[in-house]
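Posting this for the archive.
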Amino acid sequence: MQKKFQSGFVSLVGRPNVGKSTLMNHFIGEKIAIISNKPQTTRNKITSILTKEHFQCVFIDTPGIHKPKHKLGEYMVKSAENALNEVDVVLMLIEPTERVLEMDKYVIERLKNVKTPVVLVINKIDTIEKQKLLKVIDQYRQIYDFAEVVPISAIKGQNTESLLHVIEKYLPEGPQYFPEDMVTDQPERQIVAEIIREKALHLLEDEIPHGIAVEITSMKKRPNKNLVDVEATIYCEKESHKGIIIGKQGSMLKKIGSRARIDAERLLGSPIYLQLWVKVKKDWRDSDFLLKNFGYDTKKI
């Protein structure tokens, strides 16, 4: 008897920086979500699509759930929480810490109103002994009734196939929503903007990256040439930050640009000519108009 096709939506939640984007990129085999060791790297719901012979799984990598400090933070948390009831299974990612962290308790509190099955995914198991891992599982089971618990290492690909089998169990029978060669519904411009922001996150000092946004002002294929011209503006909140982003004689901006160009060329499949500018927009994270302008539209969540 032929196996019926299943398709459904999977939300990845957890506090910032537990490896949600790394796991999603691992499954898809391409860089869709940006990765950084700084919290709040993901700001929008990133959708990526995994198509196998018998199922299609649409992953929604949400911004990390945290206590918001400004309107951008409120947007990120609202976006994450809205994704929980619209899916077929929720994956809550944690790290194997000795005790349940306050931020993880905060996420679990948000899950208490969710009717969707929640699978606890313990990431970074390559960093802990097996005996300690059992203790972690026990602690979390005491505070929430998880449908399943799956320990993995997203960065090393350990036990990720088992996680896929668990996900498949919860996917309903249904059609293939997207073509099998499609890996994301994100517009190319948005991914290029996120790539530039990722390189800035890696290269800049800790206090600056949270206050930056990237806007692609122009992206055009040059006539009769295999070349894409990209113009982008990096917005920051303070004049002093602008100087740091540009660097001495433009050195930092050049570094951000050359690193971003490599990933963007891989994404677009052609060489690009990238021009970057830096502008100051004071307190943009608390401005509804500017948040919408940068793609964080609260009416769309």
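The chain has nine helices and nine strands. Residues 34-44 have pLDDT under 50 and may be disordered.
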